[in-house]
């Protein structure tokens, strides 16, 4: 199968799934139950595993390992993104029934933005190999910063993106059901829900600055990087509704993510002298995440007692 056919087929699959999601399964705004969220999370993970099997038979074992490792990295980093989304929804008091629509459009925008990041990142590394050391050093710095920066505080009113949005659009004081825009007396107004979408887009852009270099340390194959990234993002909505409310059980996850980013950064920096086998990278990442999640759950239960 030609590479162009794979690109077209994969993107058609993504478009069909997005159309089914918003057009068929979630045509009306409603509260997403944990059961429904877990079901869709499982479906997206299953799709990713099926695609991983396809990659194995189409491209071989090494590419399959690269896809799976990249998917795990992006999925784990997306959990950190989810906690920020929880803070944003809480700050703006977004009704649960409207959250799915906001996430749908927010993540659709994130997909488009990340495509640009991925193609630019791969092209830059191919043309200017020395950028590998810059990306690697940046990941090491980010990993250390995650641990040392303390608790994240959110103040959207001071966010430059929010300020810019409010300068361009008149924003209604209250939500107008699940609408992003309304027209009053012939004047177009944006709603706070639109502001939330823009803020989520901006937040994902910040996370992409970390996650794209991380996955480029695993593979420089544009198709592998793109597909693993897309699968991780597509499952973000359902994962949000599955994890919302139990984020307290992942309090030590940031330490695991910190260790992973430092590891991946070091992997990039020493690649010219020693290339860490992809199997070892995958095992290290899974082990680190497992320890972080297990520690969070055990210590959270201990504090309750």
Output the keywords.
mainly alpha, 3% strand
Topology:
Elements lengths: L2 H23 L8 H26 L1 H32 L3 H32 L3 H18 L11 H9 L1 E2 L9 E4 L2 E4 L1 H25 L5 H13 L1 H8 L9 H17 L8 H27 L1
Parallel strand pairs: 1-3
Antiparallel strand pairs: 2-3
Protein model, in words:
β2 and β3 (187-190) form a beta hairpin. The chain has eleven helices and three strands, in the order ααααααβββααααα. The N and C termini lie far apart (57 Å). It has one domain (22-304). It is mainly alpha-helical.
Main pleated-sheet profile: 3 strands, mixed
Overall structural domain count = 1
- The rounded distance between the terminal residues' Cα atoms is 57 Å
Q: What string gives the helices and strands in order?
A: HHHHHHEEEHHHHH
Radius of gyration: 20 Å
Query: How many helices does DSSP assign?
Result: 11
Averaged pLDDT:
79
Summarize the structure.
With 305 residues, the protein is mainly alpha-helical. It has 11 helices and 3 strands, in the order H-H-H-H-H-H-E-E-E-H-H-H-H-H.
